[in-house]
Design brief:
The chain is an all-alpha fold. The protein is built from 14 helices and 2 strands. It starts with a helix and ends with a helix.
Amino acid sequence: MNRGRSSWALALTMLLPTLLLLLLFNYLPAMIGLYRAFTRWETGEPPRWTGLTNFVMMAQDEFLRISLSNQLLLLIANLVKTLTMPLLVAELLMSLRSPRWQYLLRTAFILPMVVPGMVTMLLWAFIYDGSIGLLNQILELFGGGGLTRAWLGESSTALLAIVGVGFPWAGGLSLLIYLAGLTSISHDVWDSCALDGATGWRRVLMVDLPLLRPQVRLLMTLTIIGTLQDFGSILILTGGGPGLATHVPALHMYFQAFRFGHLGYAAAIGLTLFVVIFTLSVFNQRLGRKREESL
């Protein structure tokens, strides 16, 4: 009994510094931000409690309304990209009979994960460049010079260009999660499918996808969180422009805080984003579990 208590006390003592740092640098700023969302807090001024004023301003903010439509399109596009191409690549890798080739190709797809995100964004900025960009050069090479344009500089193409970043969209993390799910499927299941004539895409749709529901649910949650929080890539590529063509709520929050000094209003946008992300994540998890329980 005493040995158990001493082990528990030792574990708590070892965890205490980490817990304190977590409270200090993660939870305390979040709690302060929660309070400041209900205040008028401008740069160089002390915060003053204003209740729901910031949220009323959000409902009347035309820029925020436009950014919501852009965000919805990006969210749908990112969900489609996450749930299709990485799964396709994972299935193709699993279909290879040579372990050596499977290992080499898996490494080739995962290796880009070590490249810093900033470098990737700058690379895609070069690809979309209107004068010397790789995309325009390829179009001219194959006789499509009339299609060349400043992809990030025109309202009609900027948001679609953002969607195209990362093509062919076989992200390393998503691929690893799908591969882990496929690896956990017993070969006996696939052998039974082969005996029943369920091979190729029929097996993927009828067997693999139902068994990959936990992985799909996890990737959907991660995609929702990452898409709604992200503004760095858009800030680098377009700065939210041209006009408001690529403006998103997280970028609006950033501009309100660090460009215009409306810190309280930015905190209110951040709180709203947190509520939306939390709600969508919980809804996705519960919906996925209900579907699994119904099977």
